[in-house]
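Lecture 7 notes: from sequence to structure.
We start with the chain below.
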Amino acid sequence: MNQVLQFIFQIAILILSVIIHEVSHGAVAYALGDSTAKDEGRLTLNPIKHLDLFGSILLPVFTYLMGGFIFGWAKPVPYNPYNLKRPRWLGRISPDALVGAAGPMSNILLAITFGFFIRFGGAYTIFPSAFFQIASFIIFLNLVLAIFNLVPIPPLDGSKVLFAFLPGRAYEVEHFMERYGIILLLIFIFLLSGIIIPIADFLFRIIIGLGV
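Predicted C-alpha cells for the same chain:
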C-alpha cells in the first residue's frame, strides 16, 4: 500500500472511529433520558456533523507527518447530565459514568470485532491480505483512543468514571481536577503519554492471538 493511499485509509479510519466514539456517548445519554444529542442532530454517522477542524484534520495530518501514526478527535457530543435517569439495573453506578464510559467502550468493541476477523479469518483465507493490514490499524488505533480517553483527567472520559466513584468528601479533589484539568492533561501528554503505546501493543497482541 503506497504512502498516499495509506494516509487516506488511516484518516478515514480515524474519522469513523472518533465519530462512533462520540455517537456512543450521545446514544447512551439518549437511552438514559437525555435527548440533547438527538435534538442537535448528533446521533448520526454523518462526518459533517462531527468533524473538528483541529482535532479531525490538522492534528491527524501533523501527527502523521511527525511520526507516521495519526491521532485526533471529533467534536464532543453534548448531553445534559441533569436529564439523565437512573434505571434500577444501574444500581449505584452513576448515569454520568455510563455515558462517559460509552465512548472508550465503543472503541474497545471495534478493536475486539476486527481482532476476531484476524484471529479466525486468516485460517480460512476469507479475506485478502490487505484487509488484515487495515484491520490491524483499526484495532491498534481504537485501543489507543480507548486508553487515552480512559485517562482520569478532565475533560477526558475517564474523569467522569473516576468522579462517579469518588466518595462525597472527595469533592475538593474533583474541583481541583476540573479547575486544572487542561494543565494536568498537558503534563500527562508531554511526560506520560508514552505509556499508551506499550499498553495498546500489549492488548493488541492479546486480541489478535499473538500472546505476550
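Points to note: The chain has nine helices and no strands. Residues 3-208 form one domain.
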